[in-house]
Amino acid sequence: MADPPPRRTVLGAPAERLEGRDKVTGKARYAAEHTPPGCAYAWPVPAGVTCGRLTSVDTADALALPGVLTVLTPFDAPRFAVPPDDPNLDVLQYDAVPHRGWYVALAVADTLENARAAAAAVRVTCADHGDEPEPHDVFLAEDHPETYTPDEVNGGYPAHRERGDAAAAFAAAPVRVDTRHRLPPLHNHPMEPHAATAHFAGGRLTVYDSCQGTGTVRAVLAALFGLPEDRVTVVAEHVGGGFGSKGTTRPHAVLAAMAAIHTGRPVKLALPRRHLASVTGHRAPTLHRLRLGAERDGTLVSLSHEVLTHTSRISEFVEQAAVPSRVMYGSPHSLTTHRVVRLDVPVPSWMRAPGETPGMHALESAVDELADALGMDPIELRVRNETAVEPDSGRPFSSRHLVDCLREGARRFGWHRRDPRPAARREGDLLVGTGVAAATYPAYVSPSSASVTAHPDGTRTVRTNATDIGTGARTVLAQVAAEALGVPLDAVRIEIGSTRLPRAPLAGGSSGTASWGWAVHKAATELAALLAAHDGPLPDEGLTVTADTGAEARRTPPYARHAFGAQFAEVQVDTVTGEVRARRMLGVFAAGRILNPRTARSQLTGGMVMGLGMALTEHSTMDAAHGDFVESDLASYHVPTHADVPTDLQAHWIDEDDSLLNPLGSKGIGELGIVGAAAALGNAVRHATGVRFHELPLTPDRVLTALEAAARPPGERVGG
């Protein structure tokens, strides 16, 4: 007897985004598109020196211009009720300049044009030591005399971890790789700039903000301006991308609120894109040293990953780039450590998959080098070092299907047809190669709350203060509720993105769906039980259940919880121009239960495109003389365009239902797609050319120089 066809469920179906039509028709309103009556406009004034002290801010010419309402400076701006926990937000409160681009004034006027003209008319004098700007230090160097080891790195991980004797085991290993990688600063460039519209009336502050979590912004603004939290409302119904840069409260929201309170008028502030590099965070540059020691059969006996990065002088943020090496491969001896140096630079911050993205690039490049040294297939080397427990903690994984991803990816990619010899495949002036890399990202979950209401007309309303930053959260949460309630998707309405709603964590760490979805599932399940026991018609106000997952989500699990994946890439390298182009990219992932294949595939391929940018086009350069990032707009900071992305770009997944994380069995996917992509591309370039590159991005000038050097006779390569 044939098995019955599988039951088609709402959850797991490729539902279209609920807000898609609103976005393409312009009905969806973003932070800067709210214009209350009497709205004024603000424009900030950045410091023109890297460090120093303000001696004067002359606003006379600015205030004389038409339509100007005020120009706030550190000498006359309203004082905060309490100092901010985040020094980045201590704007217009003191006369010191900690880095170039720090805001030293804010012009407010009746139109955007008048505000911008007023900002340009402000005259700032910033000098010390005999009218000369203070000397600055902005360059990250391996031998910097002020490096130190912090107590912990981003995410609360210990900065230093050691098992066994990694140095001795490495020295004794029959096969060794000792390699270094340098990764440049990178910048988040969301399509929607950082913007806020603030209104203060009747003792209440309302802020429409482009952010990844309105609850966090509300808490910060309430504290700074001495307001009870219930007198502050923050709304972020639609957000045009964030990628981490909107995960913390940023100066634009504070300045908009300050100006609104000071002037008594609504104030709108949208940051110019050229300011973002200085005030909204960046991925710090990282210098990596990896030492891998292995037996001749490929078994790792020693793994060391040392990272050096920078932070600012006003706040410490350390990219946790060595942490992925504590997760990936079994080894009896391990050392993972971070060093950092304080420089006169803006504070680094989150950028999609912080830590894992640079760390995994360096690790997976080193593993590929080890495969070369062993003469072993790079997939088989990774399989050889598969581990059932997290090496650093010894905890078993709640689920780990890395080998399945590698095997399935190899099958789909046609890996068996690969000639392992470097530079063996040539098509005219083009060298063609293929590469592979593994990927991992932690499976986070945070306490959340949600309410679900059943209405007499058969519709259901879900309310939770989730933030949809373009990932499709609205749609997936509606699917979760519809599945638990046994109703069609079009019967569910979603209200998210406002502090008026039940509390929920920010959108970050790929934890949104797992966190918000758990609360929605709990509330909807309890409501379904209540409805099943209810007799008669529903009351006019409906029946509402509110659920909170605080107790469950805060429990420390006995498992290591991570998502995994395998990335494959084929590239062509032009030997005449040095240009690298990706011909095809494939990712296979194990990320728990996939709740919506359509939005999941979009997130995974989007991450892969970000990895492509990291490998081939994106970088920032620190101008040592002026102390700022040179690439401060999309003309000079090159994110991938359609022409850069291969048409053959595929994301697939392994069926995995990890109920040890949450009742939905889901894991985050937004950041997993980027983690291994750059290394897969870099390893493919090595296979195509025979040249191993240790610095990104692989721009034509860098590639062509290396190819020309490799083509010279050995005696002519010194100093080339």
Provide a short characterization of the protein structure.
The protein has 720 residues and is an alpha+beta fold. The chain is built from 17 helices and 28 strands.
Structure explained in plain terms:
- This protein is α+β, with helices and mostly antiparallel strands and 720 residues long.
- Helices cover 25% and strands 24% of the residues.
- The protein is built from 17 helices and 28 strands.
- Strands 3-5-1-14-11-12-13 form a seven-stranded mixed beta sheet, with helices on both faces. Strands 9-17-16-15-10 form a five-stranded mixed beta sheet, with helices on both faces.
Question: Beta-sheet strand percentage?
Answer: 15-25%
Instruction: Return the structural class.
Output: alpha+beta
- Count helical runs: 17
Helicity level: 25-40%
List how many beta strands DSSP finds. 28
Mean pLDDT, rounded to whole units? 95
Strand order of the main beta sheet, please? 3-5-1-14-11-12-13
Shape annotation: globular
